[in-house]
User: What shape does this take?
Amino acid sequence: MSESFDLVILGSGPGGYVAAIRAAQLGLKTAIVERERLGGICLNWGCIPTKALLRTSEIYHYMTHAKDYGLSAEKIGFDLEAVTQRSRKVAGQLNAGVKGLMKKNKVTVFEGTGTLTAKDTLVVKQGDKDVELKAKHIIVATGARARDLPFAKADGKRIWTYRHAMVPPEMPTKLLVIGSGAIGVEFASFYNDMGADVTIVEMLPRILPVEDEEVSAFMDKALTKQGIKLLTGTGVDGLDVGANGVTAKIKGKDGQVTSTEFSHVIVAIGIVPNTENIGLEALGIETDRGHIKVDGYARTNVEGIYAIGDVTGPPWLAHKASHEGIVCVEAIAGLKPHKFETWNIPGCTYSRPQVASVGLTEAKAKDAGHEVKVGKFPFIGNGKAIALGEAEGFIKTVFDAKTGELLGAHMVGAEVTELIQGYVIARQLETTEAELMETVFAHPTLSEMMHESVLGAYGRALHI
Assistant: This one.
């Protein structure tokens, strides 16, 4: 059986399903192929359900600190299964929403495993049946999966990836998190707030290594204050799984290896692109360390074949995949979108406290040859932050001293993942310090700190 379309998309994550919707809006007859659940990893096992878990731990934290707000609460506890089920229910609701969007936009959905057999052909294996899809344009949006340790694969019992950590069979008592990127820090924050004894091991000299150094230093102190043990410049040489726990061989900065017992381990050391067994090699599609090579319009070296999202390389972010998909589809449809670039993509970590950033760090700006002006404003100087009981954190802005260009913004503190978009918009509009300083910010809001940070870069901060 063979069916013909203008566009076929392999993978229905935030890159794939958004691309399908935009293609349908532009009049392209579109199909999407998914081997698991519509919405991909982000919606079902990543971005969304983890935020549901983190919301639970945030509320639990407030409940256990009720007296800080003049309240009292007794016999505080939680039902781990109910916590997990709430997270899964949120994911299920959004999965159903994507199904509805596909139906509304008349996108044909094929459930099964897809393989490229020609530059205009994708074969979908559905049990014992194969369905052949023909299309002038095919987008690969197969995403990525968690990277395993070479010496200890995740088993779902004692050694977990992010998927296991979202549906824990039991509450860890003593948890080791290997890796301190966004995923590692978020899970460490969740389990710590829920009562686990948490240790983070990071091979690099600091946690959250892609963030500004001052943000990393602040998070180090904040997480340590919360009781999380941080071991930087440290590696794990081995994991021995037993009936009741895991023995980790941890190699410290001094080269000494010590053995420490943990109840569970979360491995958060990066991702691997899903490029195996989908037909790339047979068609001669170029890859770089497993990631598909594309240009600014998501075109591969093979005419008619495109790739978007995690499968194309960093930054591995849902919003990057979605925007990349839109640019790709609009180019296919004959529009003239701006080519996709990564210079203005925000990054967010939803721990407690939160971290958000966009653009260049202070160090990278200097390395790039910029003379910089830097502004920094603390949460303790903001009335709304104090009223919320969230007075820890700061906002930092980096400007080009000669042109006033906003080179980067870096935040740590309550709700900064919502605030960061203001700076993203400012950079997109090529706003300079002058426009930002002349903008009126509502009072009392956390966003006033954004204004103060800009003012601070030019010696004009008002409340510090």
Q: What stands out?
A: The mean pLDDT is 97. Residues 80-104 form the longest helix (25 residues).
